[in-house]
């Protein structure tokens, strides 16, 4: 037996798989299909990460198993290649982003191939390829034509370092996701997509899909549906009204002041009445330097300015109340104005204490001078006229009905999710296919003129003004209007990074199509994606964006299914050996290349799948890796113990059926670690028994193959099994043979248990009878008696009646 040479064997099989097109997805519509999708990587300069390996190997195992089960499998990969890191790197090194991207894609491709993934390499897509982004632009145009894309003058999140406008999804805790710098609010004209129009559909669609419960929850929270009311407050001695959104219409009698966001347009409108405009504008300026997180988080110390010169009227009590400007109210949610109920809202309570405003209790049960009483499940309405005595849940609809009858307000649904700021002020992205004409205004680029490509330039540094670098290239900006032929200017903002990934799974079904984003018949066959696996960090933005695009495309008849993904799962992070998140600065990063060089791809794959519960974070362990490597070496050495028999031996039959069942089921449940543990146990049984038949070892190889395909293919060949392993069929098991055959059975004499016998579950009555007689305890109740009746239920009970 030759020593296992992972380098040689892995190269050999990767070459064979490639030469024979082993993993090509056929457009053979008669075969049952399986579409497994993994999140395509961003081809960064640092190359593949072990996190990618965990994310990809899981569905790789399923894809390889499905092929053996007779499915036509689509398991594709591609590159999500537009984005800031590439552009920043290009700027730093003076190389063109195209060149940087091509090189990075090459490195990633080589790495993915060296791991032996069974991707269909004929279907690779690159979101920066004009043949691809032509359709990204086409989808944008359809949205524009259907009124779902619009440009608006608004406040946007601007990263002070990247100098780009960020969508709300691009930063957390007031810091830019990319660079960690502060994010400020800036006024700008930008493109939006109306994802809010799809909020209800995005929520409803969750009922029809099989996503992990925590993924559904995250999406629901992100959409943030909230049912309440909009209520109009009159401004005293004015036509102008102030509209608020509240989830607590029941507390209306407890309103003692109002608060508007610093950006609220009423300030401008009533500027001639307002006596302290300077103070208010100063406050507004200050608020712009704060991030949304800083503004809304529950800091006790609330800031604000009272508006002098105008007051509001409580629409039910008729009381006159002051109006404040404060930054804890956001312009982007509800109406940008609130009715403050300090007795029952903590933020309002903090504000009232600071500005010495009255606190009126309207729900009994707390001590509202001490703290806000926010419990809605106990207490009844007080100080509230016609609501007095009601519980909160009755008082809300009662008040809303009153408001509607008196035309003061109406029931309203609000969503936390904002419309999608669909733009970047950078070079390396899809140009938005719009031109501006002096005569015709905003004009979409005709579909026949797509794609709108980026100009081939050498300067793409961002500008200080927040404009895209494209704005500095007049040859590109100046164009002619497609409608009137007059002079026009191109939109210079590009699409955000999330654009290309919002429909890539559609393109895989037909990646070379020049007539449509994909052929309808091919989509009808392949869609929906049967199983999508990826990171938890993508279950809000990417997963919602792509569902939104897909639902829209379905509505215009461009795709055949309502939902894009039937099932969605997520992997846990791989941590450094110190239990910390892997990062360059901590020096705890494991490079897959090093592992492949030293131990081979099969060892890496086996270890990554064995590392722990798939959904949980797991620290990297060199010893764990070595253990998996030893396991594979033992499998290799077993080839010498194989005897040329094509049946299971009596000694191992039960073990075989049990392991086939366990491994088959565990792979499906993403319990890769316990599946591999079961294979390790079976290997131990083989060693105990000493010899193993070809049938046993062959089926063992089949079970291990999805995880460690190279070594198992080689062993399959060595022991002389027919064909290649990847063409073999998945082993089946006999349910009966997976159950332990011998059980302990109670024997009753005249209804009383007199003893127990060890008996095969399918033994016949005669066997049971003889065994009972051999048992002294039982026998003594039968001796010298006459047996009048026997009731025997195999596997359950044996009952003897004597007299
Ligand atoms: C009166 C009230 C009384 C409220 C009370 C709460 C408790 P959710 O559930 O998240 O939708 N609100 C409305 N618009 C706001 C904005 N733009 N910025 C900050 N706060 C805003 O929250 C809705 C509640 O948040 C609304 O109901 C409003 O305060 C506040 F005992 O109105 B409530
Ligand atoms: Zn024109």
TrEMBL record:
Task: Tell me if Protein transport is a UniProt keyword of this record.
Answer: no
A single Gene Ontology CC annotation of this entry is: cytosol
Domain Methionyl/Valyl/Leucyl/Isoleucyl-tRNA synthetase anticodon-binding, by residue range, is: 655-765
Could you tell me which residue ranges the Aminoacyl-tRNA synthetase class Ia domain spans? 416-614
Where it mainly occurs, coarsely classed, is cytoplasm
Q: Which reactions appear under catalytic activity for this entry? A: tRNA(Leu) + L-leucine + ATP = L-leucyl-tRNA(Leu) + AMP + diphosphate
Q: What GO annotations for molecular function exist for this entry?
A: aminoacyl-tRNA deacylase activity; ATP binding; leucine-tRNA ligase activity
**Which keywords does this Swiss-Prot/TrEMBL entry list?**
Aminoacyl-tRNA synthetase, ATP-binding, Cytoplasm, Ligase, Nucleotide-binding, Protein biosynthesis
The Methionyl/Leucyl tRNA synthetase domain sits at 40-182
InterPro entries noted in UniProt: aa-tRNA-synth_Ia, Leu-tRNA-ligase, Leu_tRNA-synth_edit, M/V/L/I-tRNA-synth_anticd-bd, Methionyl/Leucyl_tRNA_Synth, Rossmann-like_a/b/a_fold, tRNAsynth_Ia_anticodon-bd, Val/Leu/Ile-tRNA-synth_edit
Q: Where does ATP bind?
A: 584
Which leading EC class covers this enzyme? Answer: ligase
Q: Name one GO biological process term.
A: leucyl-tRNA aminoacylation
Where is the motif ('KMSKS' region)? 581-585
A Pfam match is: tRNA-synt_1_2
Q: Which residues form the Leucyl-tRNA synthetase editing domain?
A: 220-404
Q: What is its EC number?
A: 6.1.1.4
Question: By its UniProt entry, which SUPFAM superfamilies does this protein fall under?
Answer: Anticodon-binding domain of a subclass of class I aminoacyl-tRNA synthetases (SSF47323), Nucleotidylyl transferase (SSF52374), ValRS/IleRS/LeuRS editing domain (SSF50677)
Q: State the superkingdom.
A: Bacteria
Family membership: Belongs to the class-I aminoacyl-tRNA synthetase family.
- HAMAP family named in the record: Leu_tRNA_synth_B (MF_00049_B)
- Protein name per UniProt: Leucine--tRNA ligase
């Amino acid at each position: 037996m030759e020593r296992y040479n992972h380098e040689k064997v892995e190269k050999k099989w990767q070459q064979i798989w490639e030469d024979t097109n082993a993993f090509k997805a056929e457009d053979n519509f008669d075969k049952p299909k399986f579409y497994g999708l993994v999140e395509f990587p961003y081809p960064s300069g640092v190359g593949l990460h072990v996190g990618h390996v965990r994310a990809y190997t899981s569905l790789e195992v399923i894809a390889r198993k499905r092929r053996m089960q007779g499915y036509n499998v689509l398991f594709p990969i591609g590159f999500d290649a537009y984005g800031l890191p590439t552009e920043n790197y290009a700027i730093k090194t003076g190389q063109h982003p195209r060149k940087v991207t091509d090189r990075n894609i090459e490195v990633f491709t080589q790495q993915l191939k060296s791991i032996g993934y069974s991707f269909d390499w004929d279907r690779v897509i690159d979101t920066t390829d004009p043949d691809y982004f032509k359709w990204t632009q086409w989808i944008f145009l359809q949205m524009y034509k259907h009124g779902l894309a619009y440009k608006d003058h608004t406040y946007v999140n601007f990263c002070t370092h990247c100098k780009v406008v960020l969508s709300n999804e691009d930063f957390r805790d007031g810091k830019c996701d990319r660079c960690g710098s502060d994010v400020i609010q800036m006024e700008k004209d930008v493109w939006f997509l109306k994802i809010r129009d799809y909020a209800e559909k995005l929520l409803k669609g969750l009922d029809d899909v099989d996503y992990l419960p925590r993924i559904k929850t995250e999406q629901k929270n992100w959409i943030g549906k909230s049912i309440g009311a909009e209520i109009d407050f009159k401004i005293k001695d004015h036509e102008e009204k102030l509209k608020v959104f509240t989830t607590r219409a029941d507390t209306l009698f407890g309103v003692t002041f109002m608060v508007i966001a610093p950006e609220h347009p009423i300030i401008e409108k009533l500027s001639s009445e307002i006596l302290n405009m300077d103070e208010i504008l100063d406050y507004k300026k200050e608020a712009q330097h704060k991030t949304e997180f800083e503004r809304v988080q529950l800091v006790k110390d609330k800031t604000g300015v009272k508006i002098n010169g105008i007051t509001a009227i409580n629409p039910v009590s008729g009381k006159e109340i002051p109006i404040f400007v404060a930054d804890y109210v956001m312009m982007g949610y509800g109406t940008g104005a609130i009715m403050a109920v300090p007795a029952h809202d903590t933020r309002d309570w903090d504000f009232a204490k600071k500005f010495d405003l009255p606190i009126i209790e309207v729900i009994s049960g707390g001590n509202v001078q001490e703290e806000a009483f926010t419990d809605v499940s106990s207490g009844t309405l007080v100080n509230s006229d016609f609501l007095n005595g009601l519980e909160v849940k009755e008082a809300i609809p009662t008040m809303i009905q009153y408001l509607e009858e008196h035309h003061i307000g109406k029931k309203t649904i609000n969503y936390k999710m904002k419309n999608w700021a669909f733009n970047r002020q950078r070079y390396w992205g899809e140009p938005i296919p719009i031109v501006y004409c002096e005569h015709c205004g905003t004009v979409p680029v005709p579909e026949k003129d797509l794609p709108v490509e980026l100009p081939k330039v050498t300067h793409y540094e961002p500008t200080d003004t927040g404009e895209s670098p494209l704005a500095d290239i007049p040859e590109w900006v100046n164009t002619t209007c497609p409608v009137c032929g007059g002079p026009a200017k191109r939109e210079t903002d590009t699409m955000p990074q999330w654009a290309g990934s919002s429909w890539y799974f559609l393109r895989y079904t037909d990646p070379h199509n020049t007539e449509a984003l994909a052929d309808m018949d091919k989509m009808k066959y392949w869609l929906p994606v049967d199983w999508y696996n990826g990171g938890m960090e993508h279950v809000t933005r990417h997963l919602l964006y792509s569902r939104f695009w897909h639902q829209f495309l379905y509505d215009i008849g461009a795709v055949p299914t309502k939902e894009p993904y039937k099932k969605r799962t997520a992997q846990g992070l791989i941590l450094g050996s110190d239990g910390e998140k892997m990062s360059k600065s901590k020096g705890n990063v494991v490079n897959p290349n090093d592992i492949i060089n030293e131990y081979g791809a099969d060892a890496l794959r086996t270890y990554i799948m064995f590392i722990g519960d798939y959904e949980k974070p797991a620290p990297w362990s060199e010893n764990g890796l070595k253990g998996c490597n030893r396991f594979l070496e033992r499998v290799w050495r077993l080839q010498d113990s194989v005897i040329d028999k094509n049946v299971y031996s009596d000694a191992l039959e039960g073990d075989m059926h049990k392991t086939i069942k366990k491994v088959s089921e565990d792979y499906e449940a993403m319990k890769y670690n316990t599946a591999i543990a079961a294979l390790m146990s079976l290997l131990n049984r083989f060693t105990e028994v000493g010899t193993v038949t070809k049938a046993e070892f062959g089926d063992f190889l089949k079970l291990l193959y999805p995880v460690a395909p190279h070594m198992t293919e080689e062993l399959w060949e060595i022991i002389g099994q027919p064909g290649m392993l990847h063409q073999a069929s998945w082993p089946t098991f006999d349910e009966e043979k997976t159950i332990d055959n011998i059980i302990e059975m109670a024997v009753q004499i005249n209804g009383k248990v007199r003893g127990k016998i060890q008996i095969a579950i399918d033994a016949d009555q005669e066997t049971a009878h003889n065994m009972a007689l051999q048992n002294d305890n039982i026998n003594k109740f039968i001796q010298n008696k006459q047996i009048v009746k026997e009731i025997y239920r195999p596997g359950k009970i044996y009952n003897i009646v004597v007299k």
